[in-house]
Sequence to fold (443 residues):
Amino acid sequence: MIVIDNVSKTLKGNKVLDHIDYVFEEGKIYGLFGRNGCGKTMFLRMIAGLIIPDEGTVTIDGKVLHKNISFPESTGIVIEHMEMLPEYSAYDNLKILAKINKIVNDEDIIKVMQDVGLDPYSKKKVRKYSLGMKQRLNIAQAIFENQKIILLDEPTNAIDEDGIQLIYEKLKELRADGATIIMATHNKEDIEELCDEIIRIDGGRIVNE
Amino acid sequence: MWDSIIVQALRYMVYGPPYYENISYNTRVSLQYLIPAFLIMLLVNRKTSGLYRGYGILQVIRGVSRKRMILLLYARLVGQVLKYLGLYYLGIVIFTSVLYIGGNNILPEEFKEVVLQTDGSLFGGNLIMATLMYITVYVVIALALSFAEHFVSDKTAYVILITVVFVMMELDNLIVVTGLPKWLHYILIYNFAYGLRNGIYGEGSVVTEMMVLSVTILVIVVGSVRLYSKKDLV
Fold:
């Protein structure tokens, strides 16, 4: 369970998050909805521990972020301009990341790549990937270690219709396994197809649920 | 002949390129001081900023210590500086070989080598110390560029460091010409790279210069670890 308690954040004079309270439960997909620059991405980054709130706390499974823990354990994230290692294949990129925590094996990597529609045996370097393939790889790295918290910023951007269906199926499967998935999106189809709860954000505040 | 070329090339690198009357001051300055600095900075640019987005984030989110990431980055930067200086040196060895084809200097009579004013040899303390200073200064320049990337964009950091290098070089000239306070020399650290400007043959004390360089490296490394550990990754 993720508890957001009265969190605010100001960056370069702009209040990007303004007294936000929310509780995210396990086994649900949440959709963050709002205009560009409304604070969706900052909200995701704050939950991931990438930005430190000026006020308030983020508590994950009873542990306060930046106090009891410096980052939320078992978290996957897809954010804009994510850069993998361009000179390696997609499989090698995942394999290198897998070495950090050593909780998945080669078969797991191959399975996730197939789930998102990537060829695990391709030697093609990531720098030669199309935007859509890069986005599939970004999603793969966010989920391939069976993360319990999955934070996705515009996950279906640049992905074709077949790919989107694969991603939807995978996210539903992860939800059924108990993952908490929080997704910032402009795409109404993402919201309608996947989200159990919709959180509308405007000016850094939650304006309705 | 080859061992003398190798030593001579090292002298060209750390003391300056061959002197030739028809080569203007600006060309010499560019060849000796500016081009190597600009090229090395260009090659090590964008390293710290990579920690704030993309792959750096993927590591942080998996619990890799930010302190470890900075220290590893700096170890890699030192390795890269050594690699690029090695390649640069190889280029100078080739250049020197061309100058001495057949064991003779093929340039005109008026060609003189500024390095002949020095008495260092490969196994003498002077040349080894000069080389060590040269490498250390470029490590400092690379680390300083990386440090600046904590605060400003890669491109801005690059422009700032180029300007700093240029100003340091010109100010050191002014100390000699106009009699500015000599202690100023010890903050113009880029000049420590060159045997005729640092304490080996020029003004100042090599020991003090090495201490300034060491303290600068320490401040940058500690400062970077502290900054990156507490900064938002936006």
